[in-house]
Amino acid sequence: MYKIEKIGESFFYIKVLGTMPPSVAKRFVKDFKAITKDLESFSSIIDGM
User: Fold this and answer.
1) 8 in helix, strand or coil?
2) Which CA distances in Å does 10 have to 6, 20, 24, 28, 34?
3) Rounded to whole angstroms, what are the CA distances from 19 to 11, 22, 32, 38, 41?
């Protein structure tokens, strides 16, 4: 399970619980690319448990 939160104009907080099966990892990549596609640069904080 994962959650992507936008915490500023180009800042993201990403929380991941456990491991991701390939199908979830592919969905994460698709979601994150969609969110960041119009940004020239961005920063992220990743919290993995």
Assistant:
1) coil
2) 8, 25, 24, 18, 13
3) 23, 10, 17, 28, 27
Predicted TM-score (pTM) of the model is: 0.80
Which residues are registered as beta bridge partners of 2? 16
* Cα–Cα nearest to 2, from 11, 23, 36: 23
pLDDT in tens, 3-38: 999 999 999 999 999 999 999 999 999 999 999 999
Rg (CA), the chain: 11
Show the DSSP H helices in the chain as ranges: 22-36
